[in-house]
């Protein structure tokens, strides 16, 4: 829950949900909202898949999903799980046996699509495998693959059909005394997905996996996901998120974190506050921010940095950030530390200097957090 007693208009009251485990990552309840992505390598290529999982983990992915379309992929999954730094979710479609094999291979969670996994008997076999091997399950309802009887009943994919599909499959798991599950109701249509998630949130206390499926490329998909997921998260709905982009999985993780950071729901790394720049700028703001984003990717400590081109808003923004730089005249600007004006710095040296100041401040924050723990 994100609560601010000074600024109550920023408060987000998260929906109460049960908590489950995806490997060592808690999902639901009062656990932090986790960020997921999915590999797009050939799962049979263990080295390439593990490298992509590691890259996603390096930028903050809590959980990574891997497709398991055939027996060879299921065999490779065992080694991928062993080498992965984060829990692996096995993505299962059509072949229920792949779900059983993935559970045996050590997957932390099985993602099954009720519309194409097969009969209730086959789903029960997957449930038994999950229970035997300590897997959780994600029920993944998708507007593009709803069951035929629901399409006949409703005439087309719609929120009510998606919710009904999800609840039907929740009943199957519960009837088999299996409760370690989460659920998603994804659609590429933002309105449909949002309505389905809102209805689902009222109908079950299961942890909810948020996503706008097939959202598009990096720019369009980011915008669509920010609108859909941002509104749901603001309402308190959602326990884990995946941003679906036609882009590098690393970008999905970055966007997911930025959405959560903008709502105060997760804090990781440097939050850069920067102006769009104009004729008043005392330095090239756009190129500076691009360089700093790359140079500061290694910082995991939550902190803020303001990069403002001129003195109109620069000093005011700097008052609220850990480190700040405001453009001035004569090829130099002002550096702010902990909200206070500190010293001038020339524009040609300021990127290196800002990186140095951010690293120093991150070390101070980490030392301050470590001290109370050491005293316990």
Automatic annotation (TrEMBL):
Catalytic activity: (2E)-4-hydroxy-3-methylbut-2-enyl diphosphate + oxidized [flavodoxin] + H2O + 2 H(+) = 2-C-methyl-D-erythritol 2,4-cyclic diphosphate + reduced [flavodoxin]
Cofactor annotation comment: Binds 1 [4Fe-4S] cluster.
Cofactor: [4Fe-4S] cluster
Stretches assigned to the IspG C-terminal domain: 271-360
Enzyme class: oxidoreductase
Binding site for [4Fe-4S] cluster: 275, 278, 310, 317
Pathway(s) this gene product operates in, as recorded in its UniProt entry: Isoprenoid biosynthesis; isopentenyl diphosphate biosynthesis via DXP pathway; isopentenyl diphosphate from 1-deoxy-D-xylulose 5-phosphate: step 5/6
Pfam families: GcpE, GcpE_C
Function comment: Converts 2C-methyl-D-erythritol 2,4-cyclodiphosphate (ME-2,4cPP) into 1-hydroxy-2-methyl-2-(E)-butenyl 4-diphosphate.
HAMAP family: IspG
Protein name: 4-hydroxy-3-methylbut-2-en-1-yl diphosphate synthase (flavodoxin)
Species this chain originates from: Sediminimonas qiaohouensis
Gene encoding the protein: ispG
């Amino acid at each position: 829950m994100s609560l601010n007693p000074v600024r109550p208009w920023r408060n987000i009251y998260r929906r109460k949900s049960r908590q489950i485990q995806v490997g060592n990552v808690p999902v639901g309840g009062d656990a932090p909202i986790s960020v997921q992505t999915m590999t797009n390598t050939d799962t049979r290529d263990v080295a390439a898949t593990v490298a992509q999982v590691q890259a996603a983990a390096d930028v903050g992915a809590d959980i990574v999903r891997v497709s398991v379309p055939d027996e060879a992929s299921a065999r490779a999954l065992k080694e991928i799980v062993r080498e992965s730094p984060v829990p692996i979710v096995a993505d299962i479609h059509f072949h229920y046996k792949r779900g059983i094999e993935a559970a045996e291979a050590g997957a932390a969670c099985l993602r099954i699509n009720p519309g194409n996994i097969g009969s209730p008997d086959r789903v029960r076999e997957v449930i038994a495998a999950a229970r035997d091997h300590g897997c959780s399950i994600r029920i993944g309802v998708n507007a593009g693959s709803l069951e035929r009887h629901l399409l006949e009943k409703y005439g087309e994919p719609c929120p009510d059909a998606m919710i009904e599909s999800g609840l039907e499959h929740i009943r199957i798991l519960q009837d088999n005394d299996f409760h370690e599950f989460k659920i998603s109701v994804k659609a590429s249509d933002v309105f449909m997905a949002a309505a389905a998630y809102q209805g689902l949130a009222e109908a079950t206390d299961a942890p909810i996996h948020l996503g706008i499926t097939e959202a598009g490329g990096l720019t369009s998909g980011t915008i669509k996901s920010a609108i859909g997921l941002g509104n749901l998260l603001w309402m308190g709905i959602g326990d884990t998120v995946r941003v679906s982009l036609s882009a590098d999985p690393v970008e999905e993780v970055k966007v997911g974190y930025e959405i959560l950071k903008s709502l105060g729901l997760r804090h990781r790394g440097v939050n850069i506050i920067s102006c769009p720049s104009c004729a008043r700028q005392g330095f090239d703001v756009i190129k500076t921010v691009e360089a700093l984003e790359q140079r500061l990717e290694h910082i995991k400590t939550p902190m803020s940095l303001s990069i403002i081109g001129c003195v109109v808003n620069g000093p005011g923004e700097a008052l609220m950030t850990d480190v700040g730089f405001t453009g001035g005249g004569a090829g130099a600007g002002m550096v702010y530390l902990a909200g206070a004006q500190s010293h001038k710095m020339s524009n040609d040296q300021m990127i290196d200097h800002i990186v140095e100041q951010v690293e120093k401040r991150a070390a101070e924050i980490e030392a301050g957090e470590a001290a109370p723990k050491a005293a316990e």
